[in-house]
């Protein structure tokens, strides 16, 4: 996931991380960076023909972001559900976008939409050495199994 520039500027980073962390997912990598246009274009390549693409690239590069890799059972679905609908106006209250956003172009968080895109996106932001493999004793209380 990415904590987008608007969320960092508004001081929402901790709250956003906390909501996902509290679901039980484990942080295995994190990095703060300011994306450049080349990285933004690769990250959002799937949207390159959309009318909002230029606006999207210019927004995501406008100020630093925090990239985080979360690991855990059904991580993609859990994060997408916790994020809420892409358009904050449609996102349910109780979701991150539903609680903290108003505008589709300023929706505070990015989350990968499939395991396949997560693997590609992780590769754009992290080297394998920056991703941690560690055990938490609490995992057996969250899922009944160790990750
Ligand atoms: P997602 O972030 O929920 O996966 P996508 O459809 O993948 O949503 O779109 C990527 C990002 O592009 C969205 O998070 C949003 O910030 C931006 N976006 C999507 N649709 C529009 C639009 O119609 N106008 C401006 N920005 C948009
Ligand atoms: Mg998407």
Provide the β-strand percentage band.
5-15%
CATH top level assignment: Alpha Beta
Total count of strands: 4
Main beta sheet: 4 strands, antiparallel
**Helical segment count:** 8
The CATH topology annotation reads as Alpha-Beta Plaits
CATH architecture: 2-Layer Sandwich
Percentage of residues assigned to helices: 40-55%
What is the averaged pLDDT score?
97
Class computed from helices, strands and strand pairing: alpha+beta
Bound molecules: inosine-5'-diphosphate, magnesium ion
The span between the termini is 19 Å
Strand order of the largest sheet: 2-3-1-4
The helix/strand series, from N terminus to C terminus, equals EHHEHHEHHEHH
Q: Please, what is the CATH homologous superfamily?
A: Nucleoside diphosphate kinase-like domain
- Give Rg in angstroms: 15 Å
Count structural domains. Answer: 1
Low-pLDDT residue spans: none
The global form is globular
């Amino acid at each position: 996931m990415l904590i987008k520039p608007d969320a960092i500027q508004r001081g929402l980073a901790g709250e956003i991380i906390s909501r996902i962390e509290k679901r039980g997912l484990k942080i295995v990598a994190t990095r703060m960076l300011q994306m450049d246009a080349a990285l933004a274009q690769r990250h959002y390549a799937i949207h390159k023909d959309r009318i909002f693409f230029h606006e999207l690239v210019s927004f995501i590069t406008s100020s630093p972001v925090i990239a985080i890799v979360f690991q855990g059972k059904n991580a993609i679905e859990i994060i997408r559900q916790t994020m809420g609908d892409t358009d904050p106006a449609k996102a349910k209250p109780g979701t991150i976008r539903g609680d903290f956003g108003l505008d589709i172009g300023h929706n505070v968080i990015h989350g990968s939409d499939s395991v396949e895109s997560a693997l590609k996106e992780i590769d754009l932001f992290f080297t394998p050495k920056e991703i941690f493999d560690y055990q938490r004793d609490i995992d057996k209380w969250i899922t009944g199994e160790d990750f």
